[in-house]
Each structure stands twice: as C-alpha cells, then as structure tokens.
Amino acid sequence: MHDTGSELDLVILDGLLGMIRMPEKRWNLLTSFETGAQEHLQRLELMAGEGDQTAFLSRVHTIKGGSGALGMKQIVALCLEIEAAGASLDAAAMSAYVVRLRSAFNAGAAALSAHLEQLHPRT
C-alpha cells in the first residue's frame, strides 16, 4: 500500500470527497487529475524548451491551485519552490523542474488512488 500521509493533506481531500457522494464520481477525480497532469506536463515541457518563463510560471501557478484543492502537498510545495525561483529560472532549470513535477504528479496520483481504494475498493 502507498503511504498517503506524505503526499496528501487528508483534511483537504476528505473535505472535497465529502461533497462528492458517489464513488464513481470520486474515482473520476483520479482520472481527471491524471489527464490534467499529462496536459500540464506537456505544456511545461514546451514552455521550458522555448525558455518561456512567464508562461511557465503562470502554468505552475494554475497547477498549484488545482493540486491544492486536492490536498496534493508535495506538488504544492514544489510549485511554491518554482514560484520562489521566479525570475532566476532559465530553460535548463525549467526542464529540471518538469522532471520533478512529473515525479510529484505520479506520487500524488498513486496516493490518491490508494486513498480512494481504501474508501471504495474497486471490484
């Protein structure tokens, strides 16, 4: 089983899940998160390759908000780190952050899946 404690803020996540009563709709959160993550990462890779710092930081800010709403602690922390780097980001740094974000997204998805599995085992 995946340790959800280091990845998820369960107070935030369970508050959200409390508003979503149907198990299949709760599982849809995971699907949406995974799909959105891939889209964000693809865009970030392009922005990093182009050295588009402004667009990169804007996208990171969007990711931070969505991840925060799901209680994804590690992603939010990484986004805060990226935002703090701000103007010092060059293309290489942005690319390195994309790699770290991909890892954080994967860990967050695994933790969310494990938590949902505890609440609503898939049969």
Average residue-wise pLDDT: 93
The main β sheet shows up as: none
Distance between the termini: 17 Å
Which regions are unreliable across 5 or more consecutive residues at pLDDT < 50? none
Give me the Rg, rounded: 15 Å
Order of helices and strands: HHHHH
The shape, in one word, is elongated
- Count of helical regions: 5
Number of strands: 0
Explained architecture:
The protein is mainly alpha-helical and 123 residues long. The chain is 79% helix and 0% strand. It is built from five helices and no strands. The chain has helices at 10-19, 23-50, 53-69, 73-85, 91-119. The longest helix has 29 residues, at 91-119.
Summary keywords:
123 residues; mainly alpha; 5 helices; elongated
Q: Gist?
A:
The two termini are 17 Å apart.
Q: What is the topology?
A:
Blueprint: H1 10-19, H2 23-50, H3 53-69, H4 73-85, H5 91-119
Helix pairs in contact: 2-3, 2-5, 3-4, 4-5
